[in-house]
Amino acid sequence: MESTSSTASCLCQQVVKIRLQQQKGLSTDLLKYKGPIHCAKTIVREEGIFGLWSGASPTVMRNGTNQAAMFTAKNTIDILLWKKHEGDGKVLQPWQSMVSGFLAGTAGPICTGPFDVVKTRLMAQGRTGDIKYKGMFHAIRTIHAEEGLRALWKGLLPRLMRIPPGQAIMWTVADQVMGLYERTYLQSAQV
Known about the structure:
The protein has helices spanning 2-21, 36-47, 56-82, 94-125, 136-147, 156-190.
């Protein structure tokens, strides 16, 4: 639920960012959007307020699937590599958490590649003018038909260079904090 609400609140910022990034040229006189505020105003004027939420469906799907894949992978990796089960009181060494977090961080981008590609394309195209993709499923079918299956994972390598290292750090901290909590409160409660 929190992932969905944070997605909704940040989505319009992503649309503006993608529209600004896709512009070509250095002269501001030739660019459609002069800056973030001008971009947002132009989108609202030309496409309506919902233009700021273009690509919402694949974004929600990507974020939800990413979280499910990452948490499932982290739990599975901890069990398989370190024999760590939830609530067993065992605290992983920081390097173990880092390995688990890094590996778990690869699961999300691999599972969500198509949603990420479709999200970006829907955000970039807008809701008026030349509409190539009519929605999430139409975009998946069109990209697959015109560019092949691998096109649905374009941009995977940069995502894998960014997300797993961050997850390694996040899980190292989270596991240590949870370990401290379990040692401090759960073990003393059993006495």
